[in-house]
Amino acid sequence: MNISTDVAWKSFMRNLAGTGSISVSGDKLTVSNTTVGSGNYAFNKKAVFVKAGETYTFSCMARRISGANGTSGSISIYYPTLTDNVNKVEINTPDWERYELRYTIPFSAQPTSTIQINIGILGGCAGEFEMSNPLLTV
Question: 77 and 117 in contact (C-beta within 8 Å)?
Fold first, then answer.
């Protein structure tokens, strides 16, 4: 079941600092950060209430415009109960590719549990990437 197909990226919350920037043109999200350092980042996030035992999948098309492997943009699923990313993938090719992440919610999850989809470039990284066609399914 699709629970989000926000092609205009309106349900994502922007988080910017320093040299980080985010722009949307049509269905394309562009994220960039030009300076490596803890005060410079750009990422979008979306929190979703989840149910125990269900598997959530986030996918999108993406490509890296600039940056080096290991030091550019990424997509992650963050599970606040564990205070950690539970699945993460780096956007590491200049060609458009479909990226997909999955996470199954533990059976011990509370009714108020959430996951957070994070898309961006954090302080230790610099580069630019584009994304389109976001889809969150359960």
Answer: yes
The DSSP bridge partners found for residue 114 are 49
Tokens of 100: 């997909």
Query: Which of 72, 66, 63, 78 lies closest to 29 in space, CA to CA?
Result: 63
In the predicted structure, residue 2 carries a pLDDT above the cut 90: no
H or E stretch at 43 = strand 41-49
Evaluate if residue 36 carries a pLDDT over 80: no
Q: What are the distances in angstroms from CA 96 to CA 62, 65, 73, 125, 126?
A: 5, 10, 14, 21, 19
C-beta of residue 20 within 8 angstroms of C-beta of residue 32: yes
Split at pLDDT 50, 70, 90, the class of 4 is low
pLDDT at 104: 94
Residue 37: count other Cβ atoms within 10 Å of its Cβ.
14
CA dihedral 26, 128, 100, 25 (to 10 degrees): 0
Question: Region 89-97: what's the mean pLDDT?
Answer: 91
- The residue among 44, 54, 41, 40 whose CA lies nearest residue 6 is 44
Token pair for residue 27? Answer: 């269905």
